[in-house]
Write a structure and sequence with these properties.
By secondary structure, the chain is α+β, with helices and mostly antiparallel strands. The protein has a domain of 187 residues: Phosphoribosyl-aminoimidazole Synthetase, Chain A, domain 2. Helices cover 30% and strands 22% of the residues. It contains nine helices and 15 strands. The strands form three sheets. The chain has a seven-stranded mixed sheet with strand order 10-12-9-13-11-14-15. Strands 1-2-3-8-6-7 form a six-stranded mixed sheet, covered by helices on one side. Helix 3 links the parallel strand 6 and strand 7. Helix 2 packs parallel to helix 3 and helix 2 packs parallel to helix 6. 44% of the residues are buried. The model has no long low-confidence stretch (mean pLDDT 90).
């Protein structure tokens, strides 16, 4: 990690700066030899242990068959078009489980609340959490609450964790992968599974969440109809797994599509070529990004997925996505290629440019 004297905003923004911070963290926690000591009574005789470990830096870890993730939410403002910190906290964590191919079953919710926070706002947040959990068919089963003095936090912070398990749909999905690839020793939809020729699909318009929140926060009226795309995606994911052929999946939150694709490319050791004209972006989002000098590929999303799919069945997966309201604007935007390094985009004017991983999210505090 480059020598730094203090943590900066970009260290939590999902881009290259955050990766540097995570590499520093890994030195302390990514120890595959860590097991319960003599003071524990956990029986691990049949333990699968770490199928997807911490240092894989995927959306969730997998330990002993349990898919586990955790996330903290500091969004500003707390309420915005299309959602609030409550719906965001549930959907974001559910989606981290879902994109591994698992089905989330239960969650925790912990609150750090500034003294003086209006009870009416807290009740509103709780209602959003309840409704979003109901949409995802996930139960909140444990939690914690702390109240701190004014100024210690910015109004409220919510931490949510979730666990999930394998499903028959995931098993079927990999059966289809094996039909086309032959032997495929993969069990989860991790970032490292892409191969040459795999199609890249995005489930809908990108950039909605970040621009909707930014416009509300700054009082800029880019589009009065624009709202966040927050949604739990676990049921959609399970439906497309029934089609099969999916090898990798991410929800492009912090750092947006650019960061997600670069993680695919780096971890899989294969290049990716995408086509600018095939990437679904609303005109209002495109115009806002041009006005602000922001790359829409770097803006965080909260209700979209990007995936790698065996090319022979990509059109079938695309049709299944478009059959669902949450995926009706899905597109195949490119393909993995062993002839390339990193992520390359064919521009609308016929040129090519490298899509670098962002240093940080250009719109901070959106998740």
């Amino acid at each position: 990690m480059r020598e730094v004297e203090e943590i900066r905003m970009e260290h939590g923004a999902g881009g290259e700066a955050m990766r540097e911070l995570l590499r520093e963290i890994m030195q302390y926690f990514a120890d595959s030899e860590n097991v319960p000591g003599d003071d524990g009574d956990v029986l691990l005789s049949n333990c699968v242990c770490e199928e997807v470990p911490l240092d894989a830096l995927d959306d969730s870890a997998v330990f002993n068959g349990i898919v586990f993730t955790t996330d903290s939410h500091t969004v500003k403002p707390l309420f915005f078009p299309g959602g609030d910190i409550g719906s965001l906290s549930i959907a974001g964590t559910v989606n981290d489980i879902a994109v591994m191919g698992a089905s989330p079953v239960c969650m925790s919710a912990a609150f750090v609340i500034e003294e003086g926070f209006p009870m009416s706002d807290f009740v509103r947040v709780l209602g959003s959490m309840r409704d979003t959990a109901h949409m995802a068919s996930v139960k909140i089963v444990t939690g914690d609450t702390k109240v701190v003095e004014k100024g210690a936090v910015d109004r409220i912070i919510i931490n949510t964790s979730a666990i999930g398990f394998r499903t028959e749909a995931l098993e079927h999905n990999f059966d289809v992968v094996r039909d086309y690839r032959g032997r495929a020793d993969i069990r989860w939809l991790t970032d490292s599974n892409l191969k040459d020729g795999d199609a890249i699909i995005v489930s809908g318009y990108i950039g909605d969440h970040g621009i909707a929140l930014l416009s509300h926060r700054e009082g800029i009226n880019f589009d009065s109809e624009l709202k966040s795309d927050i949604a739990p995606l676990n049921k959609l994911v399970q439906e497309i797994l029934k089609v099969g052929g999916i090898v990798a999946m991410k929800d492009p939150t912090r750092g947006g599509l650019a960061n997600a694709l670069n993680e695919f490319s780096e971890k899989s050791g294969v290049g990716i070529e995408i086509e600018e004209e095939r990437i679904p972006i609303r005109e209002s989002v495109r115009s806002a990004c041009e006005m602000l000098g922001i790359d829409p590929l770097e803006i965080g999303n909260e209700g979209k997925i990007v995936m790698g799919v065996v090319s022979e069945i990509a059109e079938d997966v695309l049709r299944a996505l478009r059959h669902d309201e949450l995926g009706k604007n899905a597109e195949i935007i490119g393909y993995a290629s062993e002839e390339l390094r990193g992520v390359v985009m064919k521009t609308e004017v016929g040129g090519r440019r490298t899509v670098e991983p962002p240093i940080g999210d250009p719109v901070p505090r959106i998740c």
